[in-house]
């Protein structure tokens, strides 16, 4: 039976307004790949309505078509769920587009692509020439918005591109500069000492620098035989603005945008890594864990269970301290493959992303889950009806 895609029962339950949220956690399920189809994988992650995903344990009895054994079927709720039908534009518009306005109002914004290697992070962020991703779409909208307000305001835009590999920061626009350190300036905001900051006036120029920087990324194959990124790639775009005719030397507003293609989240043990790979895995896990903790703490901030946010646990979270706290908006897009062969890493990814936000929607989850199962039975009942009519 096919899942209830956007059935009326599930649709009316979704009413979150992304613009008001300080933190949004989205999930993107990519299409099954040819390689996965060839190895006989079946889809086990199903989007239900706009906000839920059901993950089936492929260890279940395949003969059990009515799925009477549901004990190992897991449901997760996110602010938005995208499946293989979602276009790059759909994903951009529902997650990141609203950040542009904030950046021009002097807010910081961060977009993360999270998930195991091969799950679609780079596709979402960078995309293809014909299907550009979040980097280009965000930058294009940002420059467009500046153009539209250029009668009253002067802008200056600059970019940096860096990677964090094994808790060390490298400048991807100037790799020969070695390891860079984080410093706190007199106002307590975090700076990367010696990083290249390029002034730029259009999105295309940033994309060219990004492509050039990508060739410098630390990227090596692991035992799973996929090219996996072992480093976090951080694109930092700073927008400074002045009122037209203002004599001030200091910018009136500074908005900073971070767009981060995180290192693959697969666990070191799963890739059977040893030695150097093992150490990388430990560093990656540590920074992703620190990130999850910080985001979780932020999502609690507005609630009653406010807690101390420890940014110091990793380079990644230290660097993003200003962007994650205070006047900022954060979007995390978690990625999974729908394939039965990736069950375990999909499960851990969903758990991580779900916990990051800790969405308090138990009631909604139960309602969505019930409507999902009703839809499954409706399918079975109609199939039986058709059988009967044929007799
Ligand atoms: P990651 O960066 O997480 O390691 P990639 O973005 O490189 O993964 O995706 C792995 C492969 O799957 C690439 O060939 C990519 O083009 C393809 N892919 C990922 N997401 C999608 C999608 N939503 N639609 C079509 N192809 C996708
Ligand atoms: Mg990638």
Describe the protein.
The chain has 391 residues and is an alpha+beta fold. It has twelve helices and 17 strands. The strands form four sheets. Strands 1, 5, 6, 7, 8, 9, 12, 15, 16 and 17 form a ten-stranded mixed β-sheet that branches. It has a three-stranded antiparallel β-sheet with strand order 2-3-4, with helices on both faces. Strands 10-11 form a two-stranded antiparallel ribbon. Strand 7 and strand 8 form a beta hairpin. Helix 4 packs across helix 6. The two termini are 22 Å apart. Magnesium ion (MG) binds next to helix 5.
Question: How does the SSE layout of this entry go?
Answer:
Layout: H1 8-11, E1 23-29, H2 34-38, E2 45-48, E3 52-55, E4 74-77, E5 80-82, H3 88-95, H4 97-104, E6 108-114, H5 121-125, H6 134-148, E7 153-165, E8 168-171, E9 179-180, E10 182-184, E11 190-192, E12 198-200, H7 203-214, E13 219-221, E14 227-229, E15 232-243, E16 253-261, H8 275-301, H9 315-319, H10 321-324, E17 328-336, H11 343-357, H12 362-390
Parallel strand pairs: 1-5, 1-17, 6-16, 6-17
Antiparallel strand pairs: 2-3, 3-4, 7-8, 7-12, 7-15, 8-9, 10-11, 13-14, 15-16
The structure holds adenosine-5'-diphosphate and magnesium ion.
The site of adenosine-5'-diphosphate has 12 residues, from helix 5.
Protein name: Kinesin-like protein KIF19
Binding site for ATP: 115-122
Organism: Echinops telfairi
